[in-house]
Design brief:
CATH class: Alpha Beta
Domain AB hydrolase-1: 15-234
Distance between the termini: 31 Å
Shape: globular
Oligomer: single chain
Strand order of the largest sheet: 1-3-2-4-5-6-7
Number of helices: 11
InterPro entries: AB_hydrolase_1, AB_hydrolase_fold, AB_hydrolase_sf
Organism: Aquella oligotrophica
CATH topology: Rossmann fold
Helix content: 40-55%
Protein name: AB hydrolase-1 domain-containing protein
Order of helices and strands: EEHEHEHEHHHHHEHEHH
Length: 252
């Protein structure tokens, strides 16, 4: 599995950036460049793992978590902060639950959580639509309806993101569909209840997560929102960097 790993010998903290569905660590380019000054960085690229036919289609998400876990153990990381966007937020929760002793904090960026029957149906309908017509238009339409803020977002940036997603998805459509569905089915509520480290949910406008439900599940979770759509790292990179930096500063 490809990765970006930047060791900072002056810091004992490693930030682990976890990208979303059909994306790559490039999503976090601005964050990686900003935080590498003060922290070590690990950003695995698990998009290509989807095309590894030696991995069973029904365990793609599990295999991603297993391989990242192995890498964390290999590096012998002692203090970790997981930062996951969208589907990467689900992966962040799973990893935090596995590495409770070394997880310093987790930051979830606009992930759809906690899962509900209604949300699962939305994603099932979306996945079904990808087999019935122009896939790029289906993905573009889904993003426009749920993840794009017409008044606040940079349309050109969002179009580049859509192109990357479609390009990756079109190589292994069924397997990417399975991966997304496995993420949607993950019981994020159960994971949130067992995690005791500091947590921040950073949503877009409007947020993909159920903020009221998140606060009921985790009373001490920190909730922030930025004025843009789902792809916060691309639309408001400096605002995101400063928000994350302040959160880390307050818990160190």
């Amino acid at each position: 599995m490809k990765e970006i790993y930047l060791n900072n010998s002056d810091s004992e903290i490693t930030l682990i950036f976890l990208h979303g569905w059909c994306l790559s660590p490039e999503s976090f380019r601005e964050q990686i460049n900003y935080f590498r000054r003060n922290y070590s960085i690990l950003a695995p690229d698990y998009s290509e793992l989807v095309g590894d036919m030696s991995v069973s289609q029904d365990r793609l998400l599990l295999e991603i978590v297993e391989r990242i876990s192995k890498r964390i153990s290999q590096l012998n990381l002692s203090k970790v902060i997981f930062i996951g966007h969208s589907m990467g937020g689900i992966i962040a929760l799973q990893l935090a639950a596995r590495f409770i002793k070394v997880t310093f904090a987790s930051i979830i960026i606009d992930t759809t959580m906690p899962s509900s029957i209604k949300q699962q149906k939305v994603f099932r309908d979306f996945l079904a639509s990808l087999s019935t017509g122009n896939q790029e238009e289906q993905i573009r339409g889904f993003i426009s309806r749920r993840m794009y803020n017409l008044q606040l977002d940079d349309r050109d940036r969002v179009n580049l993101i859509i192109k990357e997603m479609v390009d990756k998805w079109s190589k292994f459509p069924e397997r990417f569909n399975q991966l997304l569905y496995q993420a949607v089915l993950f019981d994020s509520e159960a994971a949130l209840r067992i995690l005791k480290m500091p947590l921040m949910y950073l949503g877009g406008t409007p947020p993909c997560g159920d903020i009221e439900k998140l606060q009921q599940i985790k009373r001490d979770i920190i909730i922030k929102s930025l004025p843009c759509g789902h792809f916060i790292m691309n639309n408001l990179p400096q605002d995101l960097n400063l928000t994350v930096e302040k959160f880390i500063f307050n818990i160190i």
